[in-house]
Design goal:
The protein is an alpha/beta fold. Helices cover about 25% and strands about 40% of the residues. The protein has helices at about 40-50, 65-70, 100-115; strands at about 1-15, 20-25, 25-30, 55, 60-65, 70-75, 120, 130-145. Strands 1, 2, 3, 6, 7 and 8 form a six-stranded mixed beta sheet that branches. The longest helix is centred in the last third of the chain and has 17 residues, at about 100-115.
Length: about 140
C-alpha cells in the first residue's frame, strides 16, 4: 500500500465542479492499493499517517503528528501510485489492486481513521477528480508498508 502524504494548510477535491471533500490544516493522503495489500496493510499505513511527525512544534521542529495537532485528513484514491516506472516510457499497472479490492481497502482505511477520532474527508473513488491544496512547507513524503 502506497501513501503520498502532503502537509497542507487546506485541501479540497472536486468532481464535476462540486466540492466532495474539503479539509483545513492537516494531511492530504493520496492512497494507492496494490494486489498484495489487505486490511493489515491499511492498518499499518493508517498508523504511520496518523502518527508521522511532520507538523512543527513551538521550536520549529517537525515533532508533532496529525493526532497531536488535531488535524484533518483528506483521503483521495490514487491508483497511479501503484505504477511500476522502472522500465520504458509508459507506466505499468500490473501490481495495482483490482478496482474492487482497492475500493474495499480505501473504504476500510477511511472508516478506521474515523474510528480513531480523526476528522476525515474523501474524494470520490474512481472519479475524475480535481484536487486543490496549499502544501505547507512544502512537506511531502511517500509512505509504504
Amino acid at each position: 500500500m502506497q501513501g503520498l502524504i502532503q502537509r497542507v494548510k487546506f485541501a479540497k477535491v472536486e468532481v464535476d465542479g462540486k466540492v466532495v471533500g474539503e479539509i483545513q490544516q492537516g494531511i492530504l493522503l493520496l492512497l494507492g492499493v496494490e494486489k498484495i495489500d489487505e486490511e493489515q496493510s491499511a492498518d499499518k499505513l493508517l498508523h504511520k499517517v496518523s502518527n508521522y511527525r511532520i507538523f512543527t512544534d513551538d521550536a520549529g521542529k517537525m515533532n508533532l503528528s496529525l493526532k497531536d495537532i488535531g488535524g484533518e485528513l483528506l483521503v483521495v484514491s490514487q491508483f497511479t501510485l501503484a505504477a511500476d516506472t522502472k522500465k520504458g516510457m509508459r507506466p505499468s499497472f500490473s501490481s495495482a489492486g483490482t478496482p474492487e479490492q482497492a475500493k474495499r481497502l480505501y473504504e476500510y482505511f477511511v472508516e478506521q481513521a474515523k474510528a480513531l477520532g480523526i476528522t476525515v474527508a474523501t474524494g470520490q473513488f474512481a472519479a475524475d477528480m480535481q484536487v486543490s491544496l496549499c502544501n505547507d512547507g512544502p512537506v511531502t513524503f511517500n509512505l509504504s508498508v
